[in-house]
Amino acid sequence: MKLPALIFIQFVSLSLISQITFTKKPIKDSLYRNHIYAFINRTNTFRMLVPNEDFIPGNLGERVNEKSLNTYSFGIGLKGYVVKNLIWDGGMTYIQNGEQYNFESATNDSTFAYQTYYKYIAMPLKLNFTFGKSVRIFGGAGILPKLFLNYKQKQQWETVLGSRESNVIQTKDGFNTFVTSAIFNLGISLHSKNGYGIFINPEYRLQLQNSLGKTSYFKHKSSGLGISLGILKEL
User: Fold this and answer.
1) Secondary structure of 173-208 in the HEC alphabet?
2) Could you tell me the pTM of the whole model?
């Protein structure tokens, strides 16, 4: 009796297996996959600086002669599609804003110069419209929340006797710990069949709040026009 039972069980099993259909999970179109990326950025930054009328207004003095300063930043991010042709883009970035000053005496050989840096950790969040496949054009806008790290000023001077000296000032006191900037960008990315790509992304940043504390003599807001270069990978 055991043999007929085994034959019956095997027959039923084979019948059930023969009715099972195996289907492959469809491969997601690479055009709509999420991407992770890393980049470096060079931005020409400057500032709006006015007396703080809400406290004790200060005199700008020689600070009216400050010039823009090239600063460098870097970061990582992740982006994905909300709908066709619209992507979200978020990440974490180390950002520097700044300005510089250079004085040369007209009556002797003395000089004085400084480069000022305001350093932040930022968490940008943007929405971009995008078009194309292997070559994609994208552009959009977003918000850039920034957490203050520190202030650094590099000073250099030369005396009338020809002696050259330098100094570095660093502090965290007297600054707004959290500010935001609006960010606007328009870029292009190139994508290969193996999932890797490169991009170039010109952008403009405009700070919305005062960099300095409420009891500062001035109100300071940074802005900058720069360009990012990076690599990306499909997930």
Assistant:
1) CCECCEEEEEEEEEEEEEECCCCEEEEEEEEEEEEC
2) 0.83
Tokens at 177, concatenated: 């710990």
Quote the DSSP letter at residue 24. Answer: P
Strand (E) positions, the chain?
A: 35-51, 67-83, 86-104, 111-122, 125-132, 135-158, 164-171, 178-191, 196-207, 218-234
Which residue in 178, 198, 232 sits closest to 33, CA to CA?
232
Residues in the chain, how many?
235
| Pick from 180, 224, 185, 227: nearest CA to 205 | 224
Domains assigned to the chain = 26-234 (2.40.160.20)
Residue 38 pairs in a beta bridge with 76, 231
> Are the C-beta atoms of residues 113 and 73 closer than 8 Å to each other?
no
Structure tokens that stand for 55 in this block: 């406290």
Q: pLDDT tens-digit profile of 85-130?
A: 999 999 999 999 999 999 998 888 899 999 999 999 999 999 999 9
* Residues 35 and 77 sit within 8 Å (Cβ to Cβ): no
